[in-house]
Amino acid sequence: MFVYCKQDLPKDPVFPADLNKLGYLINDKDQIRKISDPEQEFQFKINRNPRWNDLQREAMNECIRKIVASRLRNLGLVSLRIPLTSGPSKPHVPILVSKNLSSASRIILVFGEPVQDLGIWAYRIVGTESINAGSAVDFAQAVLKPGENAKGDVALVLANTGQLVWHCASGRAMTINSWLAQPRPSAVDPPPGETKRNKVPGNGNWQEHVNSVFDGIVASWGRLVRKDAKIDVIGLADGGLGAIRYLANNWDPWRQHISAICLSNPLHTKTTDLPQADGQKDYPGSFPAFVASRCRAYLLSDQPLGLPLFDTPEHGCNCYSSGEELNVECIMPKAWPHMLKWLNRAYEDPDYCEEQLEMVQVPPASNGTA
To answer: CATH no. for residue 312?
Structure first.
């Protein structure tokens, strides 16, 4: 029987959250590339031991998070703690809001994917295309920059369905991936367990966080937002499911405030998440009727961006190709210009209704041969 003392165990590897020390730089195309080989992207696998690879990736992601946070701040976004009553050292989840939140007549509210960090759409897009494209930077600039990209006096809210684990030692919220990458006594020690000390009140999961943002931020009419403000909701995967479920259960007080909804990779179903009382099938004020007329969804597809798809009956709203075939997290980076254009159209015309598309699959023409 072999017995190892603590000093005999391999030390947990340490990687600095510094691009240069990690061996990378940002080129003139806003791409992260190796210093030793400016054509090479981030190299994930550097060791046969997964712990080394995971910690190096977390160090790189921390670099990206800092860069993205700085750029979003330069665009006028500031952090807001959820719940609002929590102090800087108490468990809280940070979200990002634009400085004009309390005065804007229109608010674009984004619920991202629970697997992503705040302000990040897809790390793979950051790595292959550019930092701004894979994060919310390009999107935020389009929303907040006056001109043809957005209509009205627009404010932006980026919710945070991913960073819901409170790390007591560092005093910050983080994703489960960041939690698993925190230092351990040795490289072979098991990951730490979560206790109630790692929970943020009212934000124990992504659905609770969605509820907290609606109830604590947006619903504070006349305090944090204008009483007559119109809300556009963008929901990504589970974030969209959370928004649909919340509004389905609280539609009456929200009916006059929600302008339109855009979803990427919708996870709700018409029969389960859009229940309708008997005799209200055609009731124009119901939430299912709103989803049918002022909501649209973008799905994984090899078809060109914006092409109608056959999934409408399942989700209760018109569905379109995102132009992304493989990765759910890449839908938003590719489809948000199309989303924003449609949200502008819906905002400008309060009576606008999506035409209900009826997709008919036509069998291939027969060539007359048996």
So the answer is: 3.40.50
